[in-house]
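User: Structure please.
Assistant: Input sequence and predicted structure:
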Amino acid sequence: MEHIELFFKSIFIDNMVFAVFLGMCSYLAVSKKVATAVGLGAAVIFVLAITVPLNWLLDQYLLQPGALSWLGAEYADYDLSFLSFIMFIATIATMVQLVEIVVEKFSPSLYNSLGIFLPLIAVNCAILGGSLFMQSREIETLGLAFNYGIASGIGWFLAILAIAAIREKIRYSNVPAPLRGLGITFIITGLMGIGFLSFGGMLTGGDEEEKPATETVIEVEKTEIEKEAKKLADNTKIIE
């Protein structure tokens, strides 16, 4: 259940675009066509799925205070957390270069359509945000980190795919001149964000603690006593 909850929460409730507004530059620039949006979204999913678990390993076994204790007791007091940004960005840049090489090799048309925004995934704040959120939320296992990376990528993919589909159709709509282009795109993004935030209650149904059995019995007995008292009061009024 923990994996399922994290998966759906990362996609719908903590969506990278609609909840925290990360990766907006690529989201706005590469969402004019669905085909291009799908290519970039798939690349983001791949990069997040690889970099978040790798950065989790770096954080657990290298960067956290005391993480170097596996090297020996003399290293237990070392704290390399100040290197988090550098190490995370280095991992992300390496994976982005790999994605760029693969896309250029197997899909030159997609590589040309993405243009400068493919290598810019390396500085996409959504990618770095995934690793930093993983660190700040103290995700416990490598499996959960991998789950979070994929789910966050899917959430970003759904966001850019949805806005790309809407922008393709909106070309044929009568949009007021001052709102054409980014104006109407920002408005639609805000409305979509409200829609995604409405999923906030989806996973909160079981948060309330169950009452002990004794309290339940006491409440039932109290209700029965109140009913009997009401009946006696009604009978008294009738006799009077």
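The chain is about 70% helix and 0% strand.
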